[in-house]
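User: Please predict the structure of the protein below. I'd like the answer in structure-token form so I can feed it into my own downstream comparison script.

Assistant: Understood. Taking the following sequence of 137 residues as input:
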Amino acid sequence: MQKRILIALIFAAVAGLLCGTGLDAGAATTKGAGSQNDPVVSLSYLEYRLSKLDKGGKTENASSKVTLERGKRLQPGEGKIIVVYSGACTVVGTAVDTASAALLSESSQVPLYSQILLPDGGSGVVASETTVIYIVN
């Protein structure tokens, strides 16, 4: 009789330990899954990102830097995103500041370091002074 009780107690202790470990592991995966600390990368994602590299090792989403002199106009094309790094410029046509979701109309000042979406081919910027702009391709 005592042997059965001892075996039952050991079984209950082992089951409790396994259950507790499983709960901890489940909690850890829900808190960190997909986060910066999650080390798992799927093979399909890796293959997709590697396929986007050209022979020079640059991705298709690489930025190009443009320096505009005062009075020069930049119209990179429909759907392009620009970031004004230094200087000052105003909007030609319309643009959207994606950080604040504000619509920038004709002659609006473009804020520094904001991502500006140019919705159509006629939209762009005119430099008020020497301006450095990054264009996301």
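That's the full token string. Residues 122 and 134 are 18 Å apart (CA to CA).
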